[in-house]
Amino acid sequence: MEEGGSGKGKLSEGGGLVKFFYKRLMIFSRGRFALWILGLVSFLNSSIFPVPQDAFLLPMMLANPKRSFFYATFVLICSCAGGVVGYGIGYFLYDTVGEAIVDFYGYAERVEEFKIFYEEYGWVMIVVAGITPFPYKIITIMSGFLGYGFVPFLLSSLAGRSLRFYAYVLLFMFFGEKMVVWIERWFGYVVLGFVLTLLLVLWITIGGL
Fold first, then answer.
1. I want to staple 203 with a disulfide (CB 3.0 to 4.6 A). Which of 89, 133, 158, 208 is the partner?
2. pTM of the predicted model as reported, rounded to 2 decimal places
């Protein structure tokens, strides 16, 4: 089997735009700068960038399942490094930079709510934001601004992000080639899932929740 699956599913039967999109993703995932783009997106997503790194991570895992653990670890490191920058923005530059970012995503008027939650559930908020589509960047900035302890912040970030990224690794580990074939076969639905997830993230970050 070639890297990225056997291609014997529905994808190889035609697929039109879906097939074209799939090929483009596979080309990107094996591209010369794919790893660095993945790292940059993961880093920026933790402080300013609205596009989730998952949209880049999963195609790369699909193209080379044997490197899934490496990709997940790389994204974890880049994401948490970006989270540290977000924390620094909140701690040192909230009035000049942080507030503008928080306001852009529609959370500037909810600072008091964050203060209340942080007093009791600070680490829970950080872990949940690391796993779910909730904008992690807002939590990193608010953690710094509200003076939440840096070490608890970093440990909670590592916990949340690890649960999210290594979940993909477990899928490939336990299902292996079947996982790749399944994704290829139902790639149209996978793409739809990516789009819906992205729309959900944008809706949340713009202030829908």
1. 208
2. 0.73
Task: Quickly tell me which residue has 């977000």 as its tokens.
Answer: 86
Q: How far is CA 121 from the centre of its chain?
A: 22
Task: Write down the domain spans for the chain.
Answer: 10-208
Dist CA 113 CA 38 (whole Å): 33
Distance from C-alpha of 93 to C-alpha of 166, rounded to nearest angstrom: 32
Highest mean pLDDT among 38-47, 54-63, 126-135, 173-182: 38-47
pLDDT digits (tens, 9 = 90+) for 91-129: 999 999 999 999 988 888 888 888 888 888 889 889 988
Write the Ramachandran bin of 9: left for phi over 0, alpha for psi from -120 to 50, otherwise beta.
beta
Nearest-10 crossing angle of helices 34-45, 68-92: 40
User: Rounded to whole angstroms, how far apart are CA atoms 141 and 19?
Assistant: 40
- Non-local CB neighbours of 146 within 8 Å, separated by 6+ positions: 90, 114, 115, 118
Closest to 60 measured CA to CA, from 77, 49, 47, 73: 73
